[in-house]
């Protein structure tokens, strides 16, 4: 059997790893892996110029590529270290044996000494290469594995097999194909095309949405005025490139804060977003690799009971109320744990009282406490939208970032606020189960994709703490200006322009869209995806519709959710063709994840489904094939 894995990122690497330990030893398997980037994929490319400076957004001990599905009776037993353990054991020798990697990675593994460290994206790419070599060496004799560093630009479905075409002229026929391309760039929309034309005409520089590590900012200097649209994770990468990447230096002060020393080559930078604030930073890590919070209120049994009372659906308001109850319990619990109590012997009684939300309004009076019991989680998502004092916006902004830093410094388990935000990550699998198993009605799904996604992203998907400290240092040094809420960009035909709801206006000769491309296969620039659409091998997901009949997931590729088999234009399964990962965002909840050890992470759930499909015998496969297939 010949299998093509298109994309060499974490998804297909997990599939490859599972294949090795589950294949039938009496059948010969030939597996070909394809990607224009090295093993690990585009985001984690260790050879990108600055990828040794860009951080992952997961702690190193919470990152792995080894499936939880462990078969220790395999003929070639292998170790299964997470990224941190690997950095502390095999990494240095591996890097010494591979001088093609930047020497910065050797310095980095020496510094990865605790569970509170973030590895660079490039180092994860090195880990991915080591993983690939390790599992390839452990493959059984009836299996061959080859990696082709080329882009696949086309595929046709023949009666029994698939023919795929590479950009370098490669052509091959396969029984099974898995497409896991990760984030792909899109065709420019009308606004972007207009910005690109103005930039080209005026000699300005426009960077549309893409992977920030691939942007070349080397020609920018102190004579440039840069407008950055977006304050999410990509923004921090862009910001680092335009400051420390220009020779500036961050200095650690005695109190642990940072100051910034200019190089003199930084451009003038103005950044902004709709809500006016970056997402909350991740707290100092106090959790083991597989440690997950065990909820008291937001539990599957309670949510399923609610569904039983509402015709099998969980009302969105009920979902959010239970979730906020859980966050509030953690918020109060952590305050009690750190409070100086009037009577310490009553601490167990106080904790017991917290188990009942009806006690929360009176908890202070009953026990003589001073807990903050008045918290509105929704207000914490976009607080800047209600800041009325426009003259003091900069001061309010710095106070907000300072407060976020101090909260994160208390830790992702102990901090009342940051510890509560981190629950959203720990409980994500419960959310996925509800979302993926059709527990919401159309209105609920629409709110999940808008209201809850914004809530989750802003509170739980922020940058490492060090990035927020750097941001504050740059604001205090006057290197960066963050505009008010309602930040939008446009052009007057001559310059790049930006404005905010505070009435501020900005002009620039450089415009950076600091975000990844929207996930939408219909406008993808990928020649392979365009080819599949033209042939009718892909179709939009029509599973969910609004009350007016508008499809909610038309941007997402339709698959059989049980097997991840692709559904074609005629609504028929394309047997032997699977899609995994990012192109299914929306069809499945929060696909942009890296595997975490021993928590039955999403990627390993998907790899099990796909591998089961890859190994399933199809009718007609035992017949002799002809040249026509």
Number of discrete helical segments? 19
* Mean pLDDT figure: 93
**Strand content bin:** 5-15%
What is the CA-CA span between the terminal residues?
14 Å
Features:
5-stranded parallel β-sheet, 629 residues, FAD/NAD(P)-binding protein, HpyO/CreE_NAD-binding, alpha/beta, globular, disordered C terminus, 6-stranded mixed β-sheet
Structural summary, described in words:
The protein is an alpha/beta fold and 629 residues long. Helices cover 33% and strands 14% of the residues. It is built from 19 helices and 19 strands. It has a 6-stranded mixed beta sheet with strand order 3-2-1-7-19-18, with helices on one face. It has a 5-stranded parallel beta sheet with strand order 8-17-9-12-13. Strands 4-5-6 form a 3-stranded antiparallel beta sheet. Strand 10 and strand 11 form a beta hairpin. Helix 3 packs antiparallel against helix 4. The radius of gyration is 26 Å and the shape is globular. The two termini are 14 Å apart. The C terminus is likely disordered. This is FAD/NAD(P)-binding protein. Pfam families: NAD_binding_9 (PF13454). InterPro entries: FAD/NAD-bd_sf, HpyO/CreE_NAD-binding, L-asp_N-monooxygenase_NS-form.
Summarize the structure.
The protein has helices at residues 10-22, 83-88, 91-97, 104-111, 121-137, 190-202, 233-242, 300-308, 316-338, 347-354, 363-367, 393-410, 416-421, 423-426, 428-436, 442-460, 465-476, 527-534, 602-615, and strands spanning 2-6, 29-34, 143-148, 152-157, 162-166, 171-174, 176-179, 205-207, 225-229, 249-252, 258-261, 268-272, 480-482, 488-491, 496-499, 505-508, 510-513, 565-567, 573-579. It is an alpha/beta fold and 629 residues long.
């Amino acid at each position: 059997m010949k299998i093509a894995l298109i994309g060499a990122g974490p998804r297909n690497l997990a599939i490859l790893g599972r294949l090795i330990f589950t294949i039938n030893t009496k059948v010969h398997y030939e597996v070909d892996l394809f990607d224009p980037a090295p093993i690990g994929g585009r985001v984690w490319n260790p050879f990108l110029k600055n990828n040794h400076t860009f951080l992952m957004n997961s702690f190193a001990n919470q990152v792995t590529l080894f499936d939880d599905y462990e078969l220790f009776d395999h003929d070639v037993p292998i170790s299964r270290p997470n990224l941190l353990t690997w950095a502390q054991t095999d990494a240095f020798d591996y890097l010494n044996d591979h001088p093609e990697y930047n020497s910065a990675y050797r310095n980095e593994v020496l510094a990865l000494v605790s569970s509170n460290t973030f590895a660079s994206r490039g180092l994860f790419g090195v880990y991915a290469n080591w993983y690939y070599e390790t599992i390839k060496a452990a493959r059984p004799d009836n299996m061959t594995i080859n990696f082709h560093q080329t882009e696949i630009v086309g595929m046709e479905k023949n009666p029994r097999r698939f023919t795929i075409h590479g950009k370098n002229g490669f052509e091959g026929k396969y029984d099974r194909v898995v497409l896991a391309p990760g984030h792909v760039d899109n065709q420019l929309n009308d606004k972007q095309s207009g910005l690109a034309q103005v930039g080209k005409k005026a000699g300005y520089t426009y960077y549309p949405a893409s992977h920030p590590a691939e942007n070349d900012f080397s020609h920018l200097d102190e004579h440039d005025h840069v407008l950055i649209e977006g304050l999410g994770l990509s923004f921090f990468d862009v910001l680092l490139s335009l400051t420390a990447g220009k020779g500036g230096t961050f200095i650690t002060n005695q109190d642990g804060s940072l100051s910034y020393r200019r190089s003199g080559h930084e451009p003038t930078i103005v950044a902004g977003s709709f809500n006016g604030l970056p997402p909350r930073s991740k707290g100092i890590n106090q959790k083991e690799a597989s440690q997950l919070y065990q909820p008291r209120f937001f539990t599957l049994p309670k949510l399923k009971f609610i569904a039983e009372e509402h015709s099998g659906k969980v009302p969105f308001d009920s979902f959010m109320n239970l979730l906020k109850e859980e966050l509030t319990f953690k918020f109060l619990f952590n305050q009690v744990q750190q409070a100086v109590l009037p009577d310490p012997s009553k601490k167990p009684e106080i904790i017991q009282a917290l188990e009942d939300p009806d006690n929360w309004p009176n908890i202070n009076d009953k026990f003589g406490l001073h807990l903050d019991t008045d918290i509105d989680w929704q207000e914490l998502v976009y607080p800047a939208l209600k800041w009325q004092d426009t003259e003091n916006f900069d001061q309010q902004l710095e106070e907000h970032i300072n407060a976020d830093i101090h909260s994160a410094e208390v830790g992702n388990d102990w901090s009342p606020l940051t510890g509560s935000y981190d629950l959203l990550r720990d409980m994500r699998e419960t959310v996925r189960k509800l979302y993926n198993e059709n527990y919401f009605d159309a209105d609920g799904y629409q709110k999940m994709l808008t209201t809850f996604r914004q809530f989750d992203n802003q509170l739980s998907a922020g940058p490492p703490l060090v990035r927020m400290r750097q941001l504050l240092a740059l604001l205090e040094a006057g290197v960066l200006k963050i505009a008010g809420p309602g930040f939008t960009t446009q052009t007057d035909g001559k310059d790049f322009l930006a404005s905010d709801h505070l009435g501020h206006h900005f002009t620039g000769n450089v415009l950076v869209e600091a975000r990844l491309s929207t996930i939408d296969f219909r406008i993808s620039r990928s020649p392979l995806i365009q080819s599949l659409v033209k042939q009718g091998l892909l179709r939009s997901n029509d599973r969910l519709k609004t009350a007016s009949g508008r499809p909610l997931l038309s941007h997402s590729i339709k698959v059989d959710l049980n097997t991840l088999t692709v559904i074609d234009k005629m609504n028929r399964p394309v047997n032997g063709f699977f899609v995994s990962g990012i192109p299914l965002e929306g069809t499945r909840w929060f696909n942009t994840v890296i595997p975490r050890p021993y928590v039955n992470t999403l990627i390993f759930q998907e790899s099990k489904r796909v591998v089961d499909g890859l190994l399933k015998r199809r009718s007609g496969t035992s017949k002799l094939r002809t040249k026509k297939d």
